Amino acid sequence: MWFRVTKRKLAIFFLAILIIFLCTVVYHWWFNHSAVVPEELIGVAIENTARAQSYRYEIVARSQVDGQFRTLSEITGEKAKNGDFHIKGVMVNSPVDIYQIGDITYHKDLFTNKWIVTEGSNLAKMQVLMTEINPLAHFNFRQVVGVKYLGQEKVRDERCYVLECQPHLENQYLELFWTEFIYQLWIDRKDQLIRKACIKARHKSNANAALSIDVQLYDFNQNLEIKPPR
């Protein structure tokens, strides 16, 4: 059996397909842009991330002075739900490898390559190592201004909203030398957790000096078990 299709019917068919396609595009644009309230999203994301009980992370901090770059620290770490943690990497050109298991600290000696065990200590309480041990300290803000929505990108295969803001920090060590902080945050669309952050700042007394910190967070709220080194 043959059906005869006129040019008019064919044109109507293709016009309907075009209208459906355009409606789909418009809907996705509206959902991805109009549905995002940056000021609300950033507050929810900071709160959700701060409540995370466990996670893994990577932090790279670099300084730039007169066009010359220097890596200040490059750390990978993990924190378990019970508060135990492990960090490994380089800080100020020195390798570090530290475990905190309960109130026992294991620190690999740089020269002997042996583990130094210290009981009755908890490095998590040392403010000077706060951001290396607790990367979430980077998101302790007194106030957040200049919030902008920049679009969407994927981080570790997770679709994220990208926001920019200029917060006032609650970090006396960073604010001792640096100012005019600008944050870009990648916030997971599904669970509204901060997956990535790029932080930039200017030196207070040297206009030719700048700081950049890249943070990646993943494996949130997993049952991580951190065992003492052997």
Question: Concise description?
Answer:
This protein is α+β, with helices and mostly antiparallel strands and 230 residues long. It has helices at 7-33, 38-50, 130-133, 172-177; strands spanning 55-65, 68-79, 85-91, 94-101, 104-108, 115-119, 141-155, 158-169, 178-188, 194-203, 209-218. An eleven-stranded antiparallel sheet has the order 6-5-4-3-2-1-11-10-9-8-7.
Per the principal axes of the C-alpha atoms, what is the gross shape?
globular
Number of strands: 11
- Determine the strand fraction and express it as a percent band: over 45%
Question: What is the average of the pLDDT values?
Answer: 87
Low-confidence stretches are none
Percent of residues in helical segments? Answer: 10-25%
Summing up helix and strand content along with how strands pair, one would put the structural category as alpha+beta
Helix count from the secondary structure assignment? 4
Provide the succession of SSEs: HHEEEEEEHEEHEEE
Radius of gyration: 24 Å
How are strands sequenced across the largest beta sheet? Answer: 6-5-4-3-2-1-11-10-9-8-7
| Oligomer designation | single chain
Largest beta sheet, briefly? 11 strands, antiparallel
Distance between the termini: 79 Å
